[in-house]
Each structure stands twice: as C-alpha cells, then as structure tokens.
Design a protein that fits this description.
The chain is mainly α. Helices cover 79% and strands 0% of the residues. The longest helix is centred in the N-terminal third of the chain and has 18 residues, at 3-20. The radius of gyration is 16 Å and the shape is elongated.
Length: 152
C-alpha cells in the first residue's frame, strides 16, 4: 500500500473511533478526508453513509451506500445499510432486494439477518421475521437488538 492509501486507511480508522464515540461531525470529516485521498475507498463511503443515516439524512446516506456498492458490488455491509435506509424511507421492496443481496454476499452478516427480520415483521410476515432473527442469533448470540426484536 502506498503512503496515500495508508493515510486514507488510518483516517477511516480514526473516523470509526469517532463514530463509536458519537462524534458524528468529526467522523464525517475524517471519512470525507479519506474519500478525498482515495475516491475508490468503499469502506469510507459506507461508513460516511452510516453516520449520515444516524443523523437521519437518508438521501445522502443512500448515495454513499450506492457509491460503496458501485466500487465493490459484493460489499455485504453496504448492501445491508442500503436496505436499512430504504426500509426507513418506506421502500420495502427495494429494502428486501438489498438485504437479500447483503445475505447472498455474506450469509454470516447478522446485521443483515436482523434487518430482514425487521422488514418481514413490518410486512406482517412474522414467521419469516422470526426465522431471520433466529439466524442472526445463531451468528451472534450477544446481539441484544435481536432479542428486543423477538420480544415485540
């Protein structure tokens, strides 16, 4: 990896730490810096989208997830995030398509399985939702959100 790539990677990692500390403005700044240095950094695009999603800026988040997918079409996390934002925007068909792709590219993506469960619950397909939630728990038995979703 060249110096520019190494710096971009460090910048993304710093953005990740800031995201975990809920310092959204600084996280976006670091992801933007990483993207300026490497426009093809799908992780930076995806993570920037995650921050924008947390800030309820769905359209901007969707654009970032789409860019990450354009750069890396089999990027499960970006497909998952795309599905989540589409679900929030009310596009359940688009969300389902994206979440199915997330799982196709990584059937060990517990977040995608949980999101699928949420999608099917919203559609009233409770048996399918339960199967998705249980799959997420098989992958990560400490995933508290899934327990909360199963209890609804």
């Amino acid at each position: 990896m060249n110096k520019k790539g190494e710096y971009a990677l460090r910048t993304v990692r710093k953005g990740n730490r800031l995201l975990m500390q809920d310092d959204m403005a600084s996280a976006i700044s670091h992801y933007n810096d990483a993207i300026r240095r490497n426009r093809r950094d799908e992780v930076a695009w995806n993570n920037k989208g995650a921050v924008l999603l947390a800030l309820n800026r769905q359209k901007e988040a969707l654009s970032c997830f789409d860019k990450a997918i354009e750069l890396s079409p089999a990027y499960s996390d970006a497909w998952c995030n795309r599905g989540i934002v589409l679900m929030q925007m009310g596009d359940l068909a688009g969300a389902e398509e994206s979440l199915k792709k997330a799982i196709r590219y990584s059937d060990r993506n517990e977040v995608a399985w949980n999101a699928c469960g949420t999608l099917y619950a919203r559609k009233g397909e409770f048996d399918r939702a339960r199967k998705c939630y249980l799959t997420a728990l098989k992958l990560d038995e400490t995933y508290d959100t899934v327990y909360n979703n199963l209890g609804r």
